[in-house]
Amino acid sequence: MKKTKLLLSVQVVVLLLTLLTASSAFATTVPTFTLSSSSSQIKFDLPMGTTFNGSITTTGAIRFFISAPNGTVIANLSLIDKSATFSFVAQQNGTYILNFENDLPNSVQVSFSYVTNPDISGGGNSPGIPFSYLSIFIIVAVVGSIVIFFVMRRRRKN
């Protein structure tokens, strides 16, 4: 009986850890780009309610702001000298535009990374477990637990 409880406990812990791994958010890093007396935009199609957390690092000063699908500026970090973080929740479905601007003659390298909840990276780039594989794992774990339980119970009766 102790072995059965221990085995079931281990399987429950493994199942919970798998669920946590599958649901955790992963940072996506956009390749570093250069701004030299120019501007750049990164567009994201976000469903309403999506939480967007971003981080920017630069080698010089740039201006940064975010536009909602209706064109209103929802965040304005003004000048970023070296690094900054920001966060917003999408209030409507649509394309959100992250605007990076450099009016100075010196080139500036910009690195940008973000995390969304729910994950919008798509395209298989997310290191999380795909839902179909997670479903299969859960079914196998449940069926395996039931089989082990009945096998151990049968052995005890004999």
Topology (SSEs and partners):
Elements: H1 2-23, E1 28-35, E2 39-46, E3 51-58, E4 62-67, E5 73-80, E6 83-89, E7 94-101, E8 108-117, H2 131-157
Antiparallel strand pairs: 1-8, 2-7, 3-6, 3-8, 4-5, 4-7
Helix pairs in contact: 1-2
What's the CATH C level of the largest domain?
Mainly Beta
Number of domains: 2
Strand order of the largest sheet: 1-8-3-6
The parts where pLDDT drops under 50 for at least 5 residues are: 21-25, 123-130
User: Which shape, going by the Cα principal axes?
Assistant: elongated
- Summarize the main sheet: 4 strands, antiparallel
Which fold name is given in CATH as the topology of the largest domain?
Jelly Rolls
From the N-terminal CA to the C-terminal CA, the straight-line distance is 14 Å
Give the number of helices. Answer: 2
User: What percent strand?
Assistant: 35-45%
Number of strands: 8
Helix content: 25-40%
CATH superfamily of the largest domain: GOLD domain
The whole-angstrom Rg is: 24 Å
Instruction: Give, in order, the helices and strands.
Output: HEEEEEEEEH
Kindly state the mean pLDDT as a whole number? Answer: 79
